[in-house]
Amino acid sequence: MFLRFFALLAACSMALSVSAQETQAPTPPAAATSLPPVVVETKEAKSKPKASAKKKKSTTSVAVQQPSPAPAAPQPKPTGPGNSSASDKTAYGPVQNYSAKNTATGSKTDTPLNEIPQSVSVVGAEQIRDMGAQTAQEVLRYVPGVVADTYGNDGRTDGGMIRGTEATEYLDGMRRTFGYYVNNYRVDPYFMERLEVLRGPASVLYGQADVGGIVNAVSKRPQTEQGGEITVEYGTFDFKQVKFDMTGPITSDKRWSYRLTGLARDAETQVDYVDDDRLAIAPAITFRPDSNTTITALGHFRQDRAGTISQFLPHVGTIYPNVNGQRISQDRFVGEPGDHYDTDVASGTLLVEHKFSPWLKLNHASRYADVDNDYDAIGSSGYADATEQTIYRYRWVSLANTKTFNQDTNLEAKFSTGDLRHKVLGGVDYTNYDMQLNSGFGSYSNPFNVYHPVYGQPGDLYATSPCGSLDPNDYQVVSSMPLCTHTDQTLQQTGLYVQDQMRLGNWLAVLGARKDWVENTVTGAGTNAISKKDEAISYRAGLMYEFSFGLTPYFSYAESFAAVSDVDRNGNPFDPKQGRTYEVGFKYQPVGANFAINAAIYDMDESNRLVPDPFSIFSQTQIGAVATRGFEFEITGQITKNLKVAGGYAYTDARYDDSMTAVVCADCSDPSNPVYVLVSAAGNQVESIPKHTASLWGVWEFDDPYLKGWSVGAGARYTGTSADVLEQVRVPGVTLFDAMVAYEEEHWRWQISGQNLGDKEVYTTCLQRGDCFIGQARTIITGLTYKY
After folding, report:
1. Beta-bridge partner residues of 245
2. Alpha-carbon gap, residue 692 to 734, rounded angstroms
3. What is the DSSP letter of 208?
4. CA-based angle 327:332:337, to the nearest 5?
5. SS (H, E, C) 242-298
6. pLDDT at 22
7. Got the DSSP string for 566-622?
8. H or E stretch including 499?
9. What is the pLDDT of residue 58?
């Protein structure tokens, strides 16, 4: 029913938009109301006295030289949204042929990628489409330094790691998520123009960012050229999806334009009884009252009805066989039908840009988001007998409502002091995060045969009831799960920042500083509010030099400061996480080419890192520090007129200091009375982080007359060995293969794409606490798109 509804809505909207365009009155050639095209300057021209004009030309011609684009790919230029040939020159528009020119993630200004003294990767909608990616973690699999599948094919969160730390997620330059899956939602890549990864600290610009880096998703925005598409897809695990994207002018003078993007999905997953259904729509409108002002409003409304693909299966039976030589099937569901992870999202974003003059510009962004999460699931808690056939099961229920308001306002000024040119950015941002969480935990009396499952007989449910009246270790039989844990939390953060991007001939430099004030207030059931205030100053500095042949080496130093919205097992708020990174690297774009090669080595330290609490399965704790050293290499873009590629290699050596400990069972001979002890993990590699990762994805577009319009793509991604925190349980390395075949002409595109083509059984992470996470099984999806 939902699929039919969205298909009908898409068809009607497409017809209305085409009809509206046909009935618009044409604009007279010399109409006084027509607007000049908006030009985004990426390099500023400097005014000088006439006497020095000749000198200026000779000294700056190398510095401002732009490479010529490679020849266009031979396939027909497609119709549909997002295909303006000029739009890929901005930080917010489509990325053509995998080769992004500009970014705003690395500087909060529209800046060429090769002028950012830090590692930045951009994955555009074209590459997302080619790979057939349905989630952000699938999008980031070919970005070096990112472990995209840290916690496998989860379904609740993307869970990516950058340089060994949790990726901080942003949307349109404002932080999107806090906490973890109980109060979170996943970004859908179909609604994004691009996903950008800034590796290294970003706190001078964003404040709330881990030392490893951020993932910033850039929403699709209205365009002034009419275009649209509707796609129908079908795939493995009865995956059915309809999606549409349409944009264009509303009025003949193009002052008003719109975009409407929608999606309806009805799908099962690789795990029995776990669905992945979604309804989502994103309306957007832009108003340009004059050539200096742009006002855009973005809406996003979504309903997910899904479950938990992660089943938290034990080490024995997954990476190790049980005593009978058996392994648990990867489609095994250890819960009960009816388990669910449901999410409802409603958000609105306002983006304003106004140029007071050619040298002064105002930028404003704000967003309000309301997210509801309803999580009710059963998981594995270890074997119940010596034959390793049956397991004990626990039940976890949580209801969370999260309201987040972000705003960021800044002024951007361009000016010169002598021969030194400046682009100065100064601004203030504010975040108010409010979360209310009710949760409960219990366990079932009947063991569950994980090899021969029988559902509907969980036995008695034991939990603390009535809430607060019993000893926490004294469980009683309950008829329904009592939600005994109540947490109300408010986090407010205000930041003031300033940045100067400077150029002197071929030398470029970036200097920045920021001051943050944070107040974290937590209230539990029957307790007084606990409030914690913190403040910090963060710095950033970078230096680059542009050579005439396209090479730009750089050095940078940056600091991070990230307030933590979570609390420990006693309900106390955590201290902010802090870090610093030294990075040396280069960016290389050969003159006349449309591809780039980047590389970097870095030295990174982090303090107050969050790790699983050894005394509480659902809580975290903070440790002293993690030291990370690494190297990254990346290549992206159009290598020849037929071939476009994306991939790279990363080496990540991330180790705990002497404060890291873990709990192990010293004597488990009596399951009813195990003896646990603390063991040091000092100097060990951070759990779940492989030292070596590598990937390469490429698409070949044919220009032979008999094959024109056809393209084929293939990719290989290697993830090295990782281990638990004690380096006792090791997950072997694996190489997985992906591929695609497509045919495209002016109005139609057909594609079939596959991931993990060899259908390897993969476990991406096994934690010391006893469970493993399932990787993605072979997934094949085909789709037909009509474009206009």
Report:
1. 229, 261
2. 11
3. B
4. 155
5. EEEEEEEECCCCCCEEEEEEEEEEECECCCCCCEEEEEEEEEEEEEEEECCEEEEEE
6. 41
7. -B-TTSPBPPPEEEEEEEEEEEE--TT-EEEEEEEEEEEEEES-EEE-TT-TT-EEE
8. strand 485-504
9. 38
Which residue has tokens 């084929």?
712
What pLDDT is stored for residue 158 in this prediction? Answer: 87
User: Taking the alpha carbons of 318, 319, 324, 325 in that order, is the dihedral positive or negative?
Assistant: positive
3-class SS of residue 11: helix
Q: Cα(659)–Cα(571) distance, rounded to whole angstroms? A: 22
- Taking a C-beta distance cutoff of 8 angstroms, is the pair 369, 347 a contact? yes
User: Cβ of 712: how many Cβ atoms within 10 Å?
Assistant: 14
Residues 6 or more apart whose CB falls under 8 angstroms from that of 432 comprise 404, 405, 490, 491, 492
Q: How far apart are CA 742 and CA 752, in angstroms?
A: 6
Q: What is the pLDDT of residue 670?
A: 62
The helix/strand/coil state of 565 is coil
Query: What confidence tens digit (pLDDT) does each residue in 72-124 have?
Result: 444 445 677 866 544 567 899 999 999 999 999 999 999 999 999 999 999 99
Task: Write down how long the chain is.
Answer: 788
Measured CA to CA, the distance from residue 314 to residue 392 in angstroms comes to 11
How far is the C-alpha of 125 from the C-alpha of 100, rounded, in Å?
11
The structure tokens 């006693």 sit at 570
Q: How far apart are CA 203 and CA 201, in angstroms?
A: 6
Residues 6 or more apart whose Cβ sits within 8 Å of residue 458: 336, 378, 393, 444, 445, 446, 448
Question: What's the CA gap between 728 and 653, in Å, rounded?
Answer: 17
Q: Which residues of the chain have pLDDT under 70?
A: 1-78, 82-88, 465-466, 468-474, 525-527, 614-618, 666-674
* Burial classification of residue 492, based on how many CB atoms lie within 10 Å of its CB (0-12 exposed, 13-18 middle, 19 or more buried): middle
Which residue do the tokens 């474009």 mark? 787
d(CA 728, CA 634): 32
Tell me the residue type at 18.
V
For residue 622, give both structure tokens: 């903070």
Q: Which amino acid is at 414?
A: K
3-state secondary structure at position 53: helix
DSSP 288-343: EEETTEEEEEEEEEEEEEE------EESBTTTB--TTS----TT---S-TT-EEEE
Is 290 exposed, middle or buried (CB count within 10 Å of its CB: 0-12, 13-18, 19+)? Answer: exposed
Q: What are phi and psi of 510, to 5 degrees?
A: -130, 130
- Residue 414 tokens, joined: 């361009």
Of 78, 203, 183, 180, give the one whose Cα is nearest residue 129.
Answer: 78
Helices (H), 417-479: none
- The residue with tokens 């594609």 is 751
Query: Cα separation of 81 and 757, whole Å?
Result: 31
In one-letter notation, the amino acid at residue 16 is L
Q: Count CB neighbours of 199 within 10 A.
A: 30
Q: What's the alpha-carbon Rg for the chain, to the nearest Å? A: 27
Please give the Cα distance from 374 to 397 (Å, whole number): 8
Q: In the structure encoding, which two tokens stand for residue 98, read together?
A: 């995998």
> CA-CA distances (angstroms) from residue 147 to 166, 185, 531, 775?
10, 19, 35, 13
User: Is pTM beyond 0.85 here?
Assistant: yes
- Are the beta carbons of 719 and 733 closer than 8 angstroms? yes
Q: Using CA atoms of 3, 4, 10, 14 in order, give the dihedral in degrees to the nearest 10.
A: 150
The neighbouring-strand residues paired with 605 are: 580, 627
Provide the token pair at 292: 């200096």
Instruction: Report the alpha-carbon distance of residue 84 to residue 617 in Å, rounded.
Output: 51
Helix or strand holding residue 21 (H, E): helix 2-23
**What is the CB-side half-sphere exposure of residue 723 using CA atoms within 13 A?**
14
Q: Tokens for 383?
A: 């074997």
List Cα–Cα distances, 538 to 329, 430, 513, 562, in angstroms: 49, 16, 6, 11
